[in-house]
Design brief:
6-stranded mixed sheet; globular; alpha/beta; 4-stranded parallel sheet; Rossmann fold; 354 residues
Length: 354
């Protein structure tokens, strides 16, 4: 089925596969920070407020740069900022659509506490507020599903962190340095490459009809989260993720009993840059759970740097989950249930203010 171009066109009418194939070009996104002036205050903590793909960009940055950033960086995925947010906190409000209500709430709270603020968005109320108030901001290219704009978002985030002297601009440039190589890797997963040579199609066939569970380590847990959310949004498929070493203290035991029938597909996302002790845990865990859960399929991240590996795995997640969507007989692009939820929440908010 995955090698039948007629089926691919019918089940992917908005060409999600084409969007995935072009993602590597986002690594070259030329970022402009508008309203760049700031008062030089000391920044002693960073908060990124975002949901979905916007949060993922921050999680990737945190994993990648944890040995370099000398102040705490927290990702907030709810309505309320931590109480410690103050004048010396940099709050980055990130929403591709610019209408995410959790992010808009965080922006107003940050203003109320006189925090340093920056905005990442492709438009909407968030972008309008940034422009009206002279807030430092990056405007993202429009007309993508937010979950497919992660690399744009990451480039914007690194530009802002460099602008506020949190990281060196070399890190921002390192993303662009991956673009050509990512493009070559992407060519191996496009629809015209047959299943026998296409790793993304092979992984899709391993997991279709099952509930996948993705495991990451200290470095790759954000990627495990990306794979889980890609399955949810693209394939319209339940999926879960977990992280080592925490998994060995609880979830590990769960495999030893119920359910007896285990219709799952298990994937270990492994990086050569991971802590060797965590790599050992992947190996020993699979051996100890032999016969009690499906044998894990190891996805070894490719690339000669941490960021190259993370971006490689992020793009592969989209390709694979889109192929699962096609096998599931669903259109990978729209998320109508999310739109319905937003509409109902908006109606409730309107009613409350009348």
């Amino acid at each position: 089925m995955l090698d039948d171009n007629n089926v691919l066109r019918q089940r992917d009418p908005e060409d999600a596969l084409g969007v995935a194939a072009a993602q590597f070009e986002q690594a070259r996104f030329s970022v402009k920070v508008d309203a760049p002036e700031h008062d030089g205050r000391e920044i002693n903590r960073i908060i990124v407020v975002g949901m979905g793909g916007s949060a993922l960009a921050a999680l990737l940055a945190k994993a990648w740069l944890k040995g370099e950033i000398t102040v705490p960086l927290e990702v907030v995925r709810t309505y309320d900022l931590p109480e410690y947010v103050d004048y010396n906190t940099l709050v980055i409000a990130s929403s591709y659509s610019g209408t995410t209500e959790e992010v808009l709430a965080g922006l107003e709270q940050a203003r109320g506490r006189s925090a340093q603020i920056a905005v990442i968005s492709a438009g909407g109320d968030l972008q309008a507020k940034a422009e009206e108030r002279g807030i430092s901001n990056v405007k993202l290219p429009v007309d993508l599903e937010p979950r497919m704009a992660v690399i744009y978002n990451l480039r914007a985030l690194l530009a802002i962190l460099a602008h506020f002297d949190i990281v060196n601009y070399d890190r921002f440039a390192e993303i662009a340095d991956c673009a050509d190589w990512l493009g070559q890797e992407t060519l191996q997963w496009v629809s015209g490459v047959t299943t026998d040579k296409n790793y993304a199609k092979q992984l899709a066939l391993m997991s279709v009809g099952k509930t996948p569970i993705f495991y990451g380590g200290d470095l790759t847990t954000p990627i495990a989260y990306k794979w889980k959310t890609a399955w949810n949004t693209n394939a319209k498929n339940v999926a879960f993720y977990d992280e080592y070493p925490e998994f060995n203290h609880n979830g590990f035991i769960g495999w030893t009993s119920h359910p007896v029938e285990k219709p799952f597909a298990v994937f270990d996302l492994v990086s050569t840059f991971e802590n060797p002790k965590i790599l050992k845990r992947f190996e020993v865990t699979d051996r100890l759970l032999s016969g009690q859960r499906p044998k894990a399929t190891t996805i070894e991240l490719k690339g000669d740097s941490v960021i190259a590996q993370l971006l490689w795995a992020s793009i592969l997640a989209d390709f694979t989950s889109i192929y699962v969507a096609i096998l599931n007989g669903v259109d990978p692009t729209p998320v109508p249930l999310v739109e319905k939820l937003k509409k109902e929440l908006s109606s409730d908010n309107d009613a409350a203010t009348r």
